[in-house]
Amino acid sequence: MFQRPQRETGLASAAGIADLIYHNTVRNVRKTHSNALFAILINIFQTVVFVMIFYLLFVVLGMRGQAIRGNFMLYIMTGIFLYMVHTRVVQSIISSEGPASPMMKHAPMTTAISIASAALGSLYIQVLSMACVLYVYHVGWGPITIHDPRGAFGMVFLAWFSGVGVGIIFLAIKPWAPSFVSMTSMIYTRANMIASGKMFVANTLPAVMLPYFTWNPLFHVIDQARGFTFVNYWPHNSAVMYPVYVSLGLLMVGMMGEFYTRKHASISWSARR
Predict the structure, then answer these.
(1) Residue pair 261/245 in contact by the 8 Å Cβ criterion
(2) pTM of the model
(3) What is the pLDDT of residues 22-59, one digit of tens each?
(4) What is the pLDDT of residues 190-211, one digit of tens each?
């Protein structure tokens, strides 16, 4: 009561928010393990296991001949990496602190900071895992050549951005129907195992099958990423701007839904009888 409040400049306020997002991002990275290094190593190990499972699946089913002409492992990685970036950020945002979380009792903390921290923490872990896996494969098994590295990394960012939009939609619905969100997000993740198009080349799809996949922004992102990665592949059934527009739309709807939920959410919703 004896302190005089001081107004912060816009730059100081932005620096304070950035510092809060940074520390909360570190906290999100350390959630899976008390040691941040082990948390990253666990994710790298999961990525390697995922890649090896799909490699064996392609070999056993005889689907290796349907891949793009070039490095076969790089073809698998382009699908697996972008799928994991997308699904992991969706799961991270869904599990972030909501408006009724005890963390929101602290004055500087907001749901926007929680969402941003969860999204950035997921992006950091996935990009670092991708870099480690690619470096080890490049050094240990054979050189990797990416035709357009900037475009390929842009598709990684776009896969992350589309996951942010989907995750915010689920997060806005979660306080109203947590069981529905849990089941729907699991179905969405499992469906993307096929619907993302990471198991086949989009240019080989017949016209009758395209409507089953072209609705999915991740399908466009993975196909375009392979176009940037391989010099002899030109995507014909996908576009870069479609996932951009869909992601922006999902983000706007999700932010409006999250704002409405934040104003009406109550801690008693999560109470059990």
Answers:
(1) no
(2) 0.87
(3) 767 777 777 766 666 777 788 888 888 888 888 888 77
(4) 999 888 888 888 888 888 888 8
Quick one: average pLDDT of 238-249? 93
Q: Mind giving me the DSSP string for the chain?
A: --PPP-PPPHHHHHHHHHHHHHHHHHHHHTTS-SSHHHHHHHHHHHHHHHHHHHHHHHHHHT-GGGSPSS-HHHHHHHHHHHHHHHHHHHHHHHTS--TTSGGGGSTT--HHHHHHHHHHHHHHHHHHHHHHHHHHHHHHT-----S-HHHHHHHHHHHHHHHHHHHHHHHHHTTT-HHHHHHHHHHHHHHHHHHT-TTS-GGGS-TTTGGGTTT-HHHHHHHHHHHHH-TT---SS--SHHHHHHHHHHHHHHHHHHHHHHHH--GGGG---
